[in-house]
Amino acid sequence: MTQKSLHWDGASVGDAHALVENATDGIGYRLANADYESPFVDLALRMLLNGDENRGVLPGWLNELEVTGVATPVQVDTGGAVCYGMPYENTVAVAVAVPSPTTDVRQDRIVLRRDWAAQTVRITRVAGAEGGGVPALVQSPAPGGSGVYDVPLATLAVTTAGVIAVTDDREFCTFGTAPGTDAFGAMHITDASVDFIDRDTRDRIIFLGGGDLQPALTAGKWTIYGGSTVTLTGTAGWDGGANEQGWQITGSAYEGAVGSFRPPADYAGGPVSMYVWWVSNSALAATFSVRVNVQAYTEYASGGFSWNNIANSSVSIAETLVAHQVYRTAGPSWTDAPTVFAPEVLWYVMAYWNNPAGAEDINILGVEIRYTGYV
Question: From residue 109, how far is each of 33, 91, 290, 335 by CA, in Å?
Answer without folding.
Answer: 34, 21, 52, 30
